[in-house]
Design goal:
Elements: H1 27-30, H2 41-62, H3 69-75, H4 79-93, E1 104-107, H5 135-144, E2 150-152, H6 165-174, E3 178-183, H7 191-199, E4 204-208, H8 213-220, H9 224-241, E5 246-253, H10 261-267, E6 274-279, E7 281-282, E8 297-300, E9 305-307, E10 320-321, H11 327-331, H12 334-344, E11 356-357
Parallel strand pairs: 1-2, 1-8, 2-3, 3-4, 4-5, 5-6
Antiparallel strand pairs: 7-11, 8-9, 9-10
Helix pairs in contact: 2-3, 5-6, 7-9
Bound molecules: S-adenosylmethionine (SAM) and iron/sulfur cluster.
Amino acid sequence: MAQHEVTEAPIAEPARRPRVRYRDVDPEEIATTAVSRRVPGFLRRLDAWLARATVRLVARSYLRKPDVADLLSIKIRSLRAIRHAIGNELAFRKRRERSHRLTSVNVEITNSCNLSCTMCPVNTTMQRQKRMMPFDTFRKILDDNPGLEFVLPFQWGEPMLHRDFYRMVAYARARGVRVMATSNGTMLETDADAERLARCGLDRITFSSDGIGDTHTRIRGFDWSELRENVERFRRARDRVGSDTKIDISMVLMDSTRADLDAHFAAWEGIADRVQVIPLLTGGERTTPCRELWRGSLVVLADGTITPCCVDSEGALALGNIADTSLAEVWNGTALRALRRSHRDGSYPSPCANCDEYEHESVSKRFQ
Ligand SMILES: C[S@@+](CC[C@H](N)C(=O)[O-])C[C@H]1O[C@@H](n2cnc3c(N)ncnc32)[C@H](O)[C@@H]1O
Ligand code: SF4
């Protein structure tokens, strides 16, 4: 089967941004911390164009994974971001103890969820106590780390269940940090819900659809036609209010969804801006160091535990707690340097030792 091209309309910097007002954050809250990143429009567009061209070349010729070009383009949208990505990649290649720059953070604003998807640890195997991260913790993460380029306000759990979800997105956006979220799409039952999401300042929202029709309904326990209606409702609201938020649809590729692969791409045409598949996390012996430790990203779990990788769903690789330290301190701190050294030396702690992904020609592995 041919490699699936991930589809994406060209990513252009919006001519006027933001067109929507941030309704969910008190301007007083950000008055003392807002970061100004004003650059003339034509320079920003040139910068974005050069970055996009470079990322495509790198994906094709260096990584030999053309299917990840779109995903990388979403995250790496400026020459500055490319510089940081190259610095991190060189550090990985040379297996340095220190990596170059922390650029993004996944913040698990909650590990609670209203679904029990069959492949997800959250309501199946997770041992951690379910909780909601206080807004002030989220705020501290951003305030203490002004170099962050983007934040993903979710990890294991449904972010839209958090009562401060909108406030958190708006806070990050108002600080000049790009925000991308992933959701199960259950919380968009009315036009008002959809408009609120469209106006909150998200760069991109990814809705999870594990297969289509009955496949999805069986795996997620949420009727696919309802998901579809909710996403269509969001699409209409987005276009109505003139929001720039992109819509992605994502499917976990595994035995139970594989037969739906082509239908998944076809089903969302005209609704989503981009359709992707990601591999199921599986067990398997690790034989090489994992790029993730150098890539420029950290994860903060709902209780503030900092871990280097989203696969570490129980926080076994804990590097500290955000209450006592900052991400910048952790990024090249003693614990993460020791972990990089141990990967370099071929000694992999749990869960790294048994981390692999579903093998398929339609999707590249991420944790290599
Ligand atoms: C954990 S969910 C959190 C966000 C939201 N609750 C959702 O379902 O979209 C984030 C993404 O991880 C995917 N996911 C869940 N379990 C997985 C697994 N075992 N392997 C790979 N991806 C998984 C989900 O399908 C979703 O796209
Ligand atoms: S909706 Fe998301 S977090 Fe909840 S069980 Fe499914 S994959 Fe896990």
